[in-house]
């Protein structure tokens, strides 16, 4: 019997994970998919019945090879597991491709399968266009809708007893405190909530083992041991924190035995920093489709998938260790919410992690540093591969669904700039040397659009072509990692200079005039109101970036030296010579100032 390749892909991951905006349900949903993907898929594959061999299984997708006559049964078995664990809310698309005769278990890993991989991908894309349709639900007048998603019909929570151990006394109390105490839920939402309780218990069993003196190997072994055989049989399990906690332990992250994840987004109010803001950080590896398309053999593909998956995890753990230490973020005891007084809280939460992307929630004050660390570490680990990041800083109570749209569009804008830079480098024959990592951010202030590009066109970009052809860019977004590092350093350094938030606000107003008349007049007048060292500092920060945008002409060293058009600098590297292009970093500086500096925390604001 010949062999077949099988490819799986989870349908509508985001619809399932972000179907409701409660943190617990998002996490539970994400954990369910991760568990199905990393554990259930592999266990079923390696069972005696199928003996399918894994190429990879992460990021919501998976590829295997198996005897052709067993392929259909394996797929049906896996689909049944997905239906069972998610209450029918998540499904898998798949594709099967029969390999040529002569390819067998003995030689498959040495065979070049490039054309076969391409066909498999193509078939999967075809099938994904037509995912299995959802069954029409009965519509009966006495059935109640789910209190959480409001879409499905509610059911009794006894149905979960096969999978989820019942709530503890504490959990009952906790739920009774919530507004949804009288809520009824559909099976899918119940399973998400139940899985979140499973994860909570698993974390609480792991943490006492996370002693600094425990070796990494020993800790990993203990982590694997926290889920009992009996629980495993019932399908209780977790694959996200069981990877993240050893990763953090490896970095010597300082745990607290009683620490818990934030119970909901409001818990982010317990972290220091300005304005009661939180941030979503969304990172996604660049050009992975292309990279996978270059793989010729199974071992190459397996190695790449594993490397990317591990690099994302490790980059996240490094960033958490550097910027999200518990004690650095928790407010003093008297300012904590009731929940946070009971036990410390991780100053972050992981909403999605695996394959080539991750989405986390962090305190706004640490978001850009986290984004920068993740970007740099990933590139360092993967040398030829990079990622881009979108960051959205928003009030804690801002509707999650809108934030998600915003962070997606913010990331998309970053990736677009990265791929343009890559295309440009390709035409110059420098593609191997380019770092196309980009970091973009957006501060939610009540603009009426959720789309970064629309906001960019409306607020940060202006062009005039009547009198002279001029373009103004009031932002340097999206940033290259080294430029963002420079900006963050400048903002931190400026904190000591006490620039005063009122003056910074006036500077913002001057920039937003977007011209070389009133904008420059306002900017220069403002400069003169600062003391000498403050003034020099602000001017230097603009021209520091100007230098990075200047083309050096060895024949004429003065060419392109920036004219004094503060708060702007002239970009002489711009490719379109018909236009005069002006840019400034100052608006970005002002927008991030309150989040990055500590000035906002103190009441001193000299004007
Ligand atoms: Zn529901």
UniProtKB/TrEMBL annotation:
Residues 276-427 form the GGDEF domain. InterPro entries: Cas10-Cmr2_palm2, GGDEF_dom, Rev_trsase/Diguanyl_cyclase. Gene3D superfamilies: 3.30.70.270. The keyword Nucleotide-binding applies. Transmembrane segments: none annotated. One of its GO terms (biological process) is defense response to virus. This is GGDEF domain-containing protein.
């Amino acid at each position: 019997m010949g062999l077949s390749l099988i490819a799986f892909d989870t349908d509508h991951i985001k619809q399932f994970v972000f179907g409701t905006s409660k943190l617990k349900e998002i996490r539970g949903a994400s954990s369910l998919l991760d568990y199905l993907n990393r554990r259930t898929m592999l266990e079923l594959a390696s069972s005696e019945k199928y003996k399918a061999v894994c190429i990879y299984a992460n990021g919501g997708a998976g590829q295997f090879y198996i005897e052709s006559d067993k392929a259909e049964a394996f797929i049906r078995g896996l689909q049944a597991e997905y239906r069972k664990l998610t209450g029918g809310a998540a499904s898998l698309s798949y594709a099967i491709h029969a390999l040529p005769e002569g390819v067998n278990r003995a030689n498959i890993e040495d065979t070049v399968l490039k054309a076969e991989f391409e066909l498999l991908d193509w078939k999967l894309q075809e099938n994904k266009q037509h995912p299995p349709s959802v069954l029409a639900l009965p519509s009966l007048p006495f059935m109640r809708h789910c209190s959480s998603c409001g879409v499905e019909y509610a059911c009794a929570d006894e149905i979960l007893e096969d999978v989820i151990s019942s709530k503890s006394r504490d959990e009952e109390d906790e739920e009774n405190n919530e507004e949804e105490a009288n809520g009824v839920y559909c099976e899918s939402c119940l399973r998400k909530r139940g899985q979140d309780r499973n994860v909570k218990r698993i974390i609480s069993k792991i943490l006492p083992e996370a002693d600094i003196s425990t070796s990494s190997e020993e800790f990993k072994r203990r982590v694997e041991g926290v889920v009992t055989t009996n629980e495993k049989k019932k399908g209780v399990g977790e694959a996200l924190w069981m990877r993240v906690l050893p990763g953090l332990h490896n970095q010597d992250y300082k745990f607290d035995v009683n620490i818990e994840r934030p119970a909901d987004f409001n818990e982010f109010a317990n972290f220091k920093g300005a304005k009661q803001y939180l941030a979503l950080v969304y990172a996604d590896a660049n050009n992975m489709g292309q990279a996978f398309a270059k793989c010729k053999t199974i071992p190459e593909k397996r190695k790449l998938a594993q490397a990317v998956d591990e690099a994302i995890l490790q980059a996240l753990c490094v960033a958490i260790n550097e910027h999200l230490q518990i004690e650095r973020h928790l407010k003093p005891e008297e300012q904590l919410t009731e929940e946070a007084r009971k036990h410390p809280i991780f100053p972050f939460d992981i909403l999605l992690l695996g394959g080539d992307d991750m989405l986390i929630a962090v305190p706004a004050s640490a978001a850009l540093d986290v984004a920068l660390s993740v970007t740099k570490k990933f590139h360092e680990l993967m040398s030829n591969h990079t990622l881009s990041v979108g960051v959205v800083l928003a009030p804690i109570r801002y509707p999650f669904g809108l934030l998600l749209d915003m962070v997606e569009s913010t990331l998309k804008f970053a990736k677009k700039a990265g791929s343009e830079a890559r295309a440009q480098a390709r035409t110059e024959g420098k593609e191997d040397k380019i770092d196309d990592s980009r970091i973009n951010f957006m501060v939610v202030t009540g603009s009426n659009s959720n789309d970064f590009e629309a906001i960019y066109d409306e607020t940060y970009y202006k062009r005039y072509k009547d009198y002279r052809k001029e373009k103004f860019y009031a932002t340097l977004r999206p940033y290259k990692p080294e430029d963002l590092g420079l900006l963050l350093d400048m903002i931190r350094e400026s904190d000591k200079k006490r620039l005063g938030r009122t003056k910074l606000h006036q500077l913002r107003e001057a920039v937003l005039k977007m011209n070389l008349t009133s904008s420059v007049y306002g900017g220069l007048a403002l400069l003169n109101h600062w003391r000498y060292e403050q003034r020099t500092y602000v001017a230097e920060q603009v021209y520091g970036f100007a230098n990075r945008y200047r083309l050096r002409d060895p024949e004429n060293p003065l060419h392109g030296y920036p004219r004094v058009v503060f708060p702007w600098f002239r970009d002489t590297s711009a490719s379109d010579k018909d236009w005069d292009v002006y840019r400034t970093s100052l608006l970005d500086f002002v927008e991030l100032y309150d989040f990055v500096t500590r000035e906002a925390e103190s009441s001193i604001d000299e004007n």
